[in-house]
Structures are given as structure tokens and as C-alpha cells.
Amino acid sequence: MKQIEDKNKIIGLLEQMVADKDKQNAWLSKSCDALADEVRRLEVQIGMLKAQNDQWMASGEARHPKGETKNPTKPNKQKVGFMKKHKPKK
After folding, report:
1. String of b and e for 10-47 (b: at least 16 CB within 10 Å)?
2. How confident is the chain (90 residues) per 10-residue block, as mean pLDDT?
3. How far apart are CA 84 and CA 86, in angstroms?
4. Residues 6 or more apart from 70 whose CB is under 8 A from it?
5. pTM (predicted TM-score)
6. What phi, psi does 85 have (nearest 5°)?
7. What is the pLDDT of residue 59?
8. pLDDT in the model for residue 52
9. For a Cys staple, 83 with which of 3, 45, 64, 79, CB 3.0–4.6 Å?
10. Is residue 26 one of the residues assigned to a domain?
11. Per the structure, how many domains does the chain have?
12. In angstroms, rounded to a whole number, what is the distance separating the alpha carbons of residues 74 and 78?
């Protein structure tokens, strides 16, 4: 008789554990869905930022075409300031 009661207690505990695991699975499933939604939202945001960056880069290239410098340097320009070599004083 005692063995049957012990088995029934074990079965009750196992059923409770299964129910707890089902609750955990449901919670994890909801969490995964929320994370997947967040990932999709961030991917859209990244796409928008990439498009903005591309537009910005294109506008920069339009303002400053390659091959043309704003202040062209002269080839015979002398070194100035700290770049000059100092001659030792005698």
C-alpha cells in the first residue's frame, strides 16, 4: 500500500514538473518572438541608416569631385616652421 502511495506522489511530482516545463517553454517562445521582432525592426533601421549614409557620401562626392583639390600645393613650396632643418650655431 505504501509503495502505491509513493508511486502516486512521484507521478504527481512528475506531472507538476512537466507543467512547469510547459510554462517555461511558453515563456521562452514568447521571448523568442519578441526578440525576432526586435531583430527585424533593427534590420529595417540599419537599412535606412545605410541609405542615408550612401546619400551623404554621394552628396560629398558631388561637392568635392575627385582629382580636384581645394588648395593645390605648389611643387616649389619651401618647408616652413618645424619642418626646417636647424643649422647648429657656432
Report:
1. eeeeeeeeeeeeeeeeeeeeeeeeeeeeeeeeeeeeee
2. 89 96 95 95 96 90 67 56 62
3. 6
4. 64
5. 0.48
6. -85, 130
7. 86
8. 95
9. 79
10. yes
11. 1
12. 9
> What per-residue confidence (pLDDT) applies to 64?
72
The grid cell for 64 is 568635392
67 dihedral zone (left: phi>0; alpha: psi -120 to 50; beta): left
Reading phi first (left if > 0) and then psi (alpha if -120 to 50, else beta), residue 81 is in left
Q: Is residue 72 situated within a structural domain? A: no
* DSSP H stretches of helix in 1-90: 2-63
Q: Is residue 14 part of a domain?
A: yes
Answer yes or no: is 68 within a domain.
no
Task: Give the residue numbers spanning the domain of 10.
Answer: 1-51
For 9-35, write each residue's pLDDT tens digit. 999 999 999 999 999 999 999 999 999
Q: How far is CA 64 from CA 21, 69, 70, in A?
A: 63, 8, 8
